[in-house]
């Protein structure tokens, strides 16, 4: 039996495994190899790692975990269930038992159904200005007004460029006033798709056939947590997200969750910090259990 299985091998899961391995815990990381940030050219806002390609960050993290005896397993987790005094983690070809679980399975971005949008995602169709704003600073950028938070996104993106267009299918008066006050130009009308040439975004096409030239487009996707393993165990949700305490502990004893699976705002550095915090809590939880067993 493993002491801890970490499900998800991004920054949060790997940092949790690193801290646990250095605490001399038997830890296994199971990862399916489909990171959310794979399309991005680099990680940003992470001190000493700014601009590093996501795949390189993961490879370095895996090597560090293995250096301290942690195990890396490439597989999908098909099921997670309570079993006796621990848990069973069902993989594609076998099942592993563990005392504790840390889930770091992230979320998926659901984009508007517009031709070409998904293909440009992470390149010049973007979401987070803190992640990508510097790379498009001063350029003509657009913000797709498809969600309630799109106005906030446009107000924020304006920090990186003086030439921001908000594409408004519908827009209330308070939102319109806020954008105008921020110096964001508003283009009314339904968006039909993006214009790409030479593997670069060139503009946004409206329903009337006109094209507004833009070199980057910010979109607010719907965030959908990959939390089926957690909810299947009975972890409580609050406002659509699995609830955790400051250490990442869920409502189910023995189960922690970190990163985007429980926090849609978490960036790479935030997820890594959450992983370290959860690892320390898991280690102490195991120590307390060992003390109880020793006193019997």
TrEMBL record:
Coiled-coil positions: none
Keywords of this entry: Flavoprotein, Oxidoreductase
Name recorded for this polypeptide: NAD(P)/FAD-dependent oxidoreductase
Source superkingdom: Bacteria
Catalytic activity: [thioredoxin]-dithiol + NADP(+) = [thioredoxin]-disulfide + NADPH + H(+)
Organism the protein comes from: Actinokineospora xionganensis
Keyword Oxidoreductase included in the entry's annotation: yes
Keyword check for Oxidoreductase: yes
Phylogenetic placement of the source organism: Bacteria, Bacillati, Actinomycetota, Actinomycetes, Pseudonocardiales
Family matches, as InterPro entries: FAD/NAD-bd_sf, FAD/NAD-binding_dom, Ferredoxin-NADP_redctase_2
Domain FAD/NAD(P)-binding residue range list: 3-274
Pfam name, any one: Pyr_redox_2
Residues making up the signal peptide according to the UniProt record: none
Spans traversing the lipid bilayer: none
């Amino acid at each position: 039996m493993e002491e801890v299985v970490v499900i998800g091998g991004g920054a949060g899961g790997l940092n949790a495994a690193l801290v646990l391995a250095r605490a001399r815990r038997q830890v296994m990381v199971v990862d399916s190899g489909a990171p959310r940030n794979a399309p991005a050219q680099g990680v940003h806002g992470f001190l000493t790692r700014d601009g590093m390609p996501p795949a390189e960050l993961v490879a370095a993290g895996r090597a560090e975990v293995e250096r301290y005896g942690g195990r890396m397993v490439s597989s999908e987790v098909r099921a997670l269930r309570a079993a006796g005094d621990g848990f069973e983690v069902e993989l594609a070809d076998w099942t592993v038992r563990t005392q504790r679980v840390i889930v770091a399975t992230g979320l998926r971005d659901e984009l508007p159904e517009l031709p070409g949008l998904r293909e440009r995602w992470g390149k010049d169709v973007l979401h987070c200005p803190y992640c990508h704003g510097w790379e498009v600073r001063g350029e003509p950028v657009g913000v797709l007004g498809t969600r309630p938070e799109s106005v906030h996104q446009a107000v924020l993106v304006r920090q990186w460029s003086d030439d921001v267009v908000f594409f408004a299918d519908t827009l209330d008066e308070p939102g319109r006033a806020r954008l105008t006050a921020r110096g964001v130009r508003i283009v009314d009308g339904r968006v039909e798709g993006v214009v790409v040439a030479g593997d670069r975004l060139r503009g946004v096409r409206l329903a009337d056939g006109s094209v507004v030239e833009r070199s980057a487009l910010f979109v607010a996707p719907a965030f959908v947590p990959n939390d089926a393993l957690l909810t299947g165990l009975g972890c409580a949700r609050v406002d659509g997200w699995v609830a955790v305490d400051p250490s990442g502990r869920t409502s189910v004893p023995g189960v922690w969750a970190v990163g985007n699976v429980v926090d849609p705002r978490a960036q790479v550095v935030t997820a890594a910090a959450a992983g370290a915090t959860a690892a320390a809590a898991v280690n102490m939880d195991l120590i307390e259990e060992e003390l109880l067993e020793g006193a019997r």
